[in-house]
Amino acid sequence: MSVQEYLDKHVLSRKIEDAVNAAVRAKTPDPVLFISSHMKKAVPSVITKVKARQILDSRGIPTVEVDLFTNKGMFRASVPSGDSTGMYEAVELRDGDKGTYLGNAVTKAVKNINEKISEALVGMDPTLQPQIDQAMIDLDKTEKKSELGANAILAVSIAACRAGAAEKEVPLYKHIADLSGKTNSILPVPAFTVISGGKHSGNSMPIQDIMILPTGAGRFEEALQMGSEIYHHLKAVITEKYGANECNVGEDGGFTPNISSVREGLDIVLEAISRTGYNERIKIGIDVAATDFCIGTKYDLEFKSPNKSGQNFKSGEDMVQMYRELCSGYPIASIEDPFDKEDWEHSKRFCSLGLCQVVGDDLLMSNPKRIERAIHESACNSLLLKINQIGTVTDTVEVVKMAKEAHWGVVVSHRCGETDDSFIADLAVALGAGQIKAGAPCRGERLAKYNQLLRIEEELGDQAVYAGEDWRPSC
Enolase N-terminal domain: from which residue to which, for each copy (predicted)? Predict the structure, then answer.
């Protein structure tokens, strides 16, 4: 091929001329850099390679990290995991070899990415998120993504989403909003975990989390400040009441003092709030995780106590009454998983009272069929969204649409095994979720999400809207 034929084939003369003319029109101070950038934009982005590795999450347990390459750069993502896996959620693929990481290694998932998914995606346009996700689903061929592993598929899906945003030269949250058809971005109200109990701690408090929601803040930046100040005042309260040794924190950063009852935990949280003067601007949320202490049709509130009295073995109706009393005595605005995941009867009964937001986590497992049933039966009025239970960005967008169409609230959630990936922060803003649950205002893997929300709010400037008092739809 002659030089002229080569130039003609790639239309180089015209492309170079266009780039030079654009630099002149822009009167750029660095024309060489401008021309280089202009030429790069003229070439459509395609996926050239996907490379995965095994890393450790915040608990020291293996998880999947992906580097997705296009002809314009490299884009990284890592995925979280929970401490339990429900039968209705997408399958997290682990090796199962007890001799390596106690059976928790993810080298099979990594191999699936490097040897199967990468080959299937090479040449695809990273802006076409639905097609990328569908290609992986078609390759997997199982309902719950068990062949390739939801942890493998999700890591690639998130990395591709970042590559798509870069190709469009828009922030990640804007790209996700485009994928979902939304036009307004909303900074979510954070539900900060401040006290941990249940299976997440060694104390005797039966419920899993007590959270604070700064609904009265004017901006996310102020909400983060309020959460941090209350958190530090709570540390002081715990030190005064129980001693400095009781200020240890759980996996998601909540304090784990030696308390035995929900009311005891709520009381010290209220005292910390009172010391800040934020009383009327803070709501409280609790994550009961009732499935963890449901035995048959009864609920054992002393399931962690070495000296059981037998007085705290409750029926479903007893639990309804307990929640009524708690909502009456404390500024509780949200209760997550108040009943066992299969106790639809009492979930419906409690939700019908309209006392607070009723969030479905174990009840729903982010599963479209479970969500559809809960909508039909009015078993809850808010979705706890865990992206690793779904497995792709596209499917995540769709389940949020389901919840929104039912006028539900949406809480974008972390997992106990987290990484420094901040994707869920952009996701919460993009989908207008109104709420995010990412742990305490401490620990790096939790703050990665909250600090990203600070950056997004700063970037949006005058257009930034904090959900505040409009943190959830009226139900």
Answer: 47-176
